[in-house]
Amino acid sequence: MQKSTKGFSLIELLIVVAIILIIAAIAIPNLLRSRIAANQASAVGSLRTLNTAEITYSSTYNVGFTATLSYLAPPAGAANPTSTAAGLIDSILALGSKSGYSFTYSPGATDTTGRINTYAFTAVPITSSTGTNYYYTDQSGVIRQNSTTTAGSTDSPIAG
Q1: What does the DSSP assignment read for 106-119?
Q2: Terminus-to-terminus CA distance in the chain, angstroms?
Q3: Residue 95 lies in a domain
Q4: Is the pTM of this model over 0.85?
Q5: CA–CA distance, 107 with 116 (Å, rounded to integer)
Q6: Is 2 inside any structural domain?
Q7: Torsion from C-alpha of 36, 119, 137, 56, nearest 10 degrees
Q8: Long-range contacts, stretch 133-138, CB < 8 angstroms, 24+ apart
Q9: Beta-bridge partners for 110
Q10: Nearest to 57 by CA among 80, 89, 79
Q11: Residue 4 is assigned to a structural domain of this protein
């Protein structure tokens, strides 16, 4: 009687699984690095958006910069923009967190007329798997970076 040899042997299946695991071990770290780079690029883009929104707010309402980040948020429903809901940034960024980064707004002190003439934004990675750089910007529009701790006005500007 002749033995039928249909299918794969256990050794062949183990070799295929081992090859798949080796490929995954090579690909997953690259995927994580790509995600971190994308989150960091998104954080820089969000800081640029926030700078533009602050300048637009200041020139549109002629009251200086905003007192809180929520002033840049969209108005509720179909309402028209106002100085407390200007509609200059999206609702996700207005909550202070986007693409693995947490954004903090620090308005400057008011002058004798009640205007806020300075501000600062910081972007901090939520975890080390969402980003490795910390960012800072202020009314100058220069975005600064620090790789070890929260960035500030004395850190190096990013290129580009």
Answers
A1: EE--B-TTS-B--E
A2: 76
A3: yes
A4: no
A5: 7
A6: no
A7: 90
A8: 133/40, 133/43, 135/43, 135/44, 135/47, 135/101, 137/47, 137/50, 137/51
A9: 116
A10: 89
A11: no
Residue range of the domain that includes 85: 10-157
* pLDDT for the residue numbered 29: 84
Residue 136 domain-assigned (yes or no): yes
Strand partners, 137: 121, 143
CA 74, 80, 85, 89 dihedral sign is positive
Residues in the chain predicted with pLDDT less than 50, given as ranges, are none
Asked if 121 and 50 count as a contact pair (C-beta separation under 8 A), the reply is: yes
Residues in the chain: 160
Predicted pLDDT at 3: 65
Please give the structure tokens belonging to residue 25.
């071990």
pLDDT digits (tens, 9 = 90+) for 86-114: 999 999 999 999 999 999 999 999 999 99
Number of domains the chain is built from? 1
